[in-house]
Amino acid sequence: MNPGVATRPAWSPSAISDPVVDDDGTRHFELQARCSLTPRGARIFIGLLGATTFAVASAFALRGFWPVLPFAGLEVGLLIWAVRHSMRAGQTRETITISANCVEIAHYKVGSEWRAVFPRHWAKVKLHVPPTALHPSRLLIGSHGRAREVGRFLTEDERRGLAARLQQLVGNVNESPALQGNLDRGADLRAQRE
After folding, report:
1. Residues 24, 56: one domain?
2. Strand ranges (E), 93-143
3. pLDDT (tens digit, 9 = 90+) per residue, 144-157?
4. This prediction's pTM
5. Cα gap 103→80, rounded to integer Å
6. 82 shares its domain with 164
7. Which of 1, 27, 88, 155 has the fewest beta carbons closer than 10 A?
């Protein structure tokens, strides 16, 4: 390894992977929700917190305050539900494929899956900015009165960056930028990673 060459870390904090570029110029964007907690880590976390909660509740129950035990059980039960819900939400992923003819969006979530295909020539990428800073923006890809939201789990900066990249590849209505011309940038990205 050359000391002056920057390499990409094995784990990237971004939820958006670099687009995979096929030989014909087709781009594939993979979006994945962040979930740093592993199933083993979740079991350890719940076990430690549950043991601590029941130890404290048992100490109070031995002193005659027995109603503490049901509330401790309720607390641990709610913790298990919240961690399980968070782990399931962390498995959400989306794939955006931009080819010469169409834009395809595939959304995968535990228990559900949907796909949407839009003609690239008529597709439009739109970032709806909320009226207040307290709400997240919405990134929509649509055509002919239909639209799908993508990247709901991304941060604001990631959503804006993705919107700019998609807008560059999809173009405006009645405008389809050449994917082959952007192929060189994809090759440059692959060369940087290697």
Report:
1. no
2. 93-98, 102-109, 112-119, 124-128, 138-143
3. 889 999 988 888 88
4. 0.68
5. 39
6. no
7. 1
